[in-house]
Structures are given as C-alpha cells and as structure tokens.
Amino acid sequence: MTIKKVLTIAGSDSSGGAGLQADLKTFQEYGTFGCTAITNIVTMDPKNNWNHRVYPVDETTVREQLETIFSGSPLHAMKTGMLGSTSMIKLVSEMIDQYEMKNVVIDPVMVCKGEDEPLHPENGVAIRDYLLPKATIITPNLFEAAQLSGMSTIRTVADMKEAAKKLINIGPEYVVIKGGKSLDGNKAIDLLYDGSAFTFYEVEKINTNYNHGAGCTFAAAITAGLAKGFSVKESVAKAKTFTTEGIKAGFAFNTFIGPVWHGAYNRAGLSE
What we know:
Blueprint: E1 5-13, H1 19-29, E2 33-45, E3 51-56, H2 59-70, E4 77-80, H3 86-98, E5 104-106, H4 121-131, E6 137-138, H5 142-149, H6 157-168, E7 174-180, E8 187-193, E9 198-204, H7 214-227, H8 232-248, H9 264-267
Parallel strand pairs: 1-2, 1-4, 4-5, 5-6, 6-7
Antiparallel strand pairs: 2-3, 7-8, 8-9
C-alpha cells in the first residue's frame, strides 16, 4: 500500500481546532500522511475578549520548511490556509511552479473565527493574482468569495452563482463556495462550479456554535480526497459529509469557541 503524502501551508491554531492542526487531523482520518509548513502562530487572549493575536513566521523559515518537505518523495496534493503576507503568497506560488504541484487546494483564509475584518486586505489581492490561477479548486466562504470576486456581499444562492462565475474566470479549475449556515433557510448549502455546471451539496443546518475549524477541515478533506484519487466532485461530496459529522460532534473548548471533532466520520462507521 502506498500512503499518499499531502502538504498544508497554514497557520498554527494553539487551540487545536483549526489551521494546520485541523488539517493534520483530517489527513490522518483519511489515511494520508500530512506535512506542514507553518506560516503564523495564532493565539487567543482570554483576558481581552478572546481577541486573536497572529505572530508571523519569517519568510526564510517558511521557505526552508517547504524545501525540507519538497526534498522528499513527490507529494500527491497540497492546500494553503492562512498566509502571512504578499511575499509569502508569492513564495507559495513560486514553489507550486517549481515543483509542478498538482491537486492544489487554495483555502483563501482572510479572517480568524469571530473576527469580521480581513487581517491584511492586500493579501486577498495577492491570493487572487498569484494563487487562484494555479488552483485545482478554491474553497472560499461567503465573505472570502465576495472579497475575491469584487462583489459587495453574497446573501443568496443566486449571488453565490454570480460570484462563482467571476472567480472561475480568474483561473482555478473549480470553485466551491461555502454557504454553510450563513444563507437563509434550513439548509447548509455549498456550491461547486466547474465553469459550465453547478453542483449543490446540501444538508440540514446544525444548531450549534461548535464549528471552529470547519472551513479548514472541509478544505483539508478535499485535499486528502484528491490525493487518494477521488474526482473533484467526489472529494467535495465526501468532505461535506466528513465536515458535517465533525460539526455534529463538536464540543466546547473554552467559553469562546468549540471545535469540530475530526474523528466523528470514521467513528460513525461512514468510512469506506
């Protein structure tokens, strides 16, 4: 048996629920081997309303991490998460080209959980220009999709379709926009677009606040699925189920957040 190798280039979430910790847990549950390049260390301040603090890792260190990873046997897929700066984004773009990476999942992380402003607005522009054209699939939420597509807001399925059309024209092969529980109605809806047809993935909304890391988990599951040879549509469908099960089994970490549980899918006997 060949164990598939996957890479995440992302921030470290000290609470363990999101970022590269969520990615690694997901990779493990999928039976793949995860490698990490840490771009930022993220903490929460319990003395100040759990405000996030982001400590960037210097670019030289990130480059050396990537050179270590790419010096081994070929990777079968990779994803990005929180990237610290435009120069970091350009570095990732350079590495994708240099090592001719396939199965590239770009999760355009722009805010931390509980925040509502982009960490660095210029990073969104750099992600759009340097990473989206190299992506097999991008996985923005509604806020990120609006930022990248130039739309003011995305509130409906019709808005999601319009944003997906704008995003596919930038260059990714596929776009999946995560509507989640932000849309009206009782369905959590994600939309996949390949440039010609829309595919919808719907489940009943889950009434919980324990969904920290859901977006990272979803993108990581798609990455692992692609590494294992699933099609994009199959990877997204399985990632939707994997993440939904994780949200159902979420739990309180502190008084501010509760993470999804990455072991829920396999423990529920849903794995192949």
